[in-house]
Design brief:
mainly alpha; 3 helical TM bundles of succinate and fumarate reductases; 4 helices
Length: about 110
Amino acid sequence: MRRAGGAHRGLDMWLIQRASAAYMALFIPLFSALAWRATPLDYIAWRGLFAPLPMKLGMLLFVTCLLVHGWIGLREILIDYVHALVLRLTSYFFFWTVYAACLVWTVDILWSVG
């Protein structure tokens, strides 16, 4: 049986948002512990903290989860409160562009280290 276009999309978005929240909830204490061990937190320590590839990938996944989590929440707010289709689609495009730029900027920052 074929699913209709938008059927079950809410459940999928809910699961993605919960999975991203779970990753962020696990990553923040781990990163905090690693940063605490790297004291004193000066420029050299920060570079050393972000130099290994697993840390770069973990932080990139964290930022991706943060942006996806934020995008799903923002999408729901726009669906609920912005009823003019043109304004809603313009807002989608604007925020998607900002979020994509943040992700590209994150990649640039992380891979310029070390």
